Amino acid sequence: MFYEPSLSRLKNLNISNNGYITLIFKEIDYNEIYDTNLKKVINYDFFCRFSINDKTIIGYNPKHVINTDEEPSKKIRENFKKKFYRVEDIKYPIFIGGYLGYYGYENISSIEESVKSNYNNPTNIPINIFCLYDSFIEIDYKIKKVKLCAVCNLGVNIIDNYDKSIKLIDDLEKFINSNEEIKWKRILSQDNISDKWQTNCNKVEFIKKVKKLKGRIYRGDFIQVVPSRKMYKYSSALPYDIFDELMKIGKNSPYRFILKFKNFFLIGASPELLLKVKDNKITTCPIAGTRPRGKDEEEDLINEEDLINDDKEISEHIMLVDLARNDIGKISKPASITIDEYQEVKYFSNVMHICSQVSGIIKDEYDYLDALQAIFPAGTLSGAPKICAMQNISEVETERRNFYGGGIGFINYDETLDMCIGIRTILYKDSTVYLQAGGGIVFDSDPKTEFYETVHKMNSVKKAVSNAEMLDLKRDIREDTRILLIDNYCSFTYNIYQYVSEIVNNVDVIRNDKIDVDECLDYTHIILGPGPKSPNETSNYKEILDKCKGKIPVLGICLGHECIYTYFGGNIKICSEIMHGKTSNMKHNGDKLFNKIPNPFCAMRYHSLVGDTDNVPDVIEIISETSNNIIMGIKHKKYDIYGLQFHPESIGTNFGKQLLKNFLLTTEISS
């Protein structure tokens, strides 16, 4: 394998001016192991994996990072002082070195001073981050080739500079061929956040906002506006698992990426181009008009016909095509604007959209960053007239959008760029995932329909998170794990069964008075389930604990917990607060049973009885309590025996599945 362009060819250019750079690369055959090996980039503070159709860019350890709430064009220009030299007949990658990152929605306040940004920034991420990559990898999955790339300074020191670039390329080749343990560790949010989806704007609130905006459309303030809302939750999933699952679901999206910026990730599958600048041509692709995908081809066609015959959707789309023509026209040469595609319906993972493409030739006095500012943000994420629409967005939305509605992509050293719109994108930070989606509101909009459009747009991303969580739930669990769930005549037993069955394949449920105690030893773990009445009225729990203690890990839930407490010498009494179908915040001591679980966390209670704190058995350690010190969790100091007074299987409990998995992981299976 050889390097392109060769040193001799660069020397023959006779470039003595040190103000030029070019790109050196080595092309090798693709190997599937590279995708696995490259996941170790997650160990670095900054990395990018950014795909456009069949080509993927991977970079790590950037040379420089712009992290700012200020509009970054000035800083980018300052670092692009050298000119890029394209050697003839060389087929360069789509990315030739430069900046890769995101350009946040709130930059509009610098571009257009009359639009004020929201200052409320609960995720605490900057408006912009761009990483400067001088060495990187490009994988072309279509032709199964890999380019290992490094920027090279031209000029009088070309020989030394070329050798430095070759060294970077050789390091990339070692990197792509080496396997390395993933050392990245999750950080838990310090907030008492739920593992159920929450929102900053519910259905009633969103419909109310849509009605308010429609009233302003009626009186002529604007003709379209795009309000949005967020959803968020704690997630046990690993970022790369979310990315892998999103790639399966969003494979039809042209832009796919996972980007790490030290303490957070952006993971996305965006269908929409914001702006492409190449060979003095600027291109944008407005997408507006949405229907859900059908369950089969026939239903897809029915939904497509409904979409293209919907006056509201068509008028919304035409408005945005006209807006795109206007934005590109700000900096394009007269008579150069063309509509390359118009009202084509394209299918994506869970929705279909009406799509168009508008292009123009940039005027000589403008550059790539002028083009970005001219079209920013896309009308599909703001509205028309754009300024008035954005002023209203700032009013009805209470939080910063940051990457949402902004641009995500790269800016090349040769002043070309390619950015998608930050939609269908997940922010992952502190083990919390954040999604956002909006809907285009016009006079004909139905408020309820617009709410459900945001739901449809987020569904594919939510599914990716859910699938990744399922992978994490099963991770590290031994295949020979076999659970016996004792049914104490409780109406919630099969909720526990369903949760546990998501983690392991072998779960048996047996009533407490039907169990052959000797058969308990055939299982790796036992769960004493909840139920009515008191331990003294519960069949076989003493016999089960006699048989299993020190041999098989046991978890007691509610009544099962009370049975364990009683068995080891504790007293049970009527609780000072009767809690049936009510939640409390649970404090814990950091025991392994609470691994990956915030402190405190919210859990559901269904009990009248409780362990008496006045006579805690010497062999029992309290590992969880309420804020008023009611016992909520115990463990035996010698045996793998745990008890939980609350119900991990309840829909009102956060991290219930994680608790059950932790029980399986933190207790030892007898060989």
From TrEMBL:
Residue span(s) of domain Chorismate-utilising enzyme C-terminal: 204-457
Residue stretches making up the Anthranilate synthase component I N-terminal domain: 43-147
Entry-linked InterPro entries: ADC_synthase, Anth_synth_I-like, Anth_synth_I_N, Chorismate_C, Class_I_gatase-like, GATASE, TrpG/PapA_dom
GO BP term, example: L-tryptophan biosynthetic process
Cofactor(s) the record lists: Mg(2+)
Catalytic function, reaction form: chorismate + L-glutamine = anthranilate + pyruvate + L-glutamate + H(+)
Any Pfam family the entry gives: Chorismate_bind
Span of the signal peptide: none
Entry GO MF terms: anthranilate synthase activity; metal ion binding
Keywords annotated in UniProt: Glutamine amidotransferase, Lyase, Magnesium, Metal-binding
Domain Glutamine amidotransferase: 484-665
Subunit composition and interactions: Heterotetramer consisting of two non-identical subunits: a beta subunit (TrpG) and a large alpha subunit (TrpE).
Functional note: Part of a heterotetrameric complex that catalyzes the two-step biosynthesis of anthranilate, an intermediate in the biosynthesis of L-tryptophan. In the first step, the glutamine-binding beta subunit (TrpG) of anthranilate synthase (AS) provides the glutamine amidotransferase activity which generates ammonia as a substrate that, along with chorismate, is used in the second step, catalyzed by the large alpha subunit of AS (TrpE) to produce anthranilate. In the absence of TrpG, TrpE can synthesize anthranilate directly from chorismate and high concentrations of ammonia.
NCBIfam families attached to this UniProt entry: trpG_papA
Protein name, entry field: Anthranilate synthase component 1
Protein source organism: marine metagenome
Taxon lineage: unclassified sequences, metagenomes, ecological metagenomes
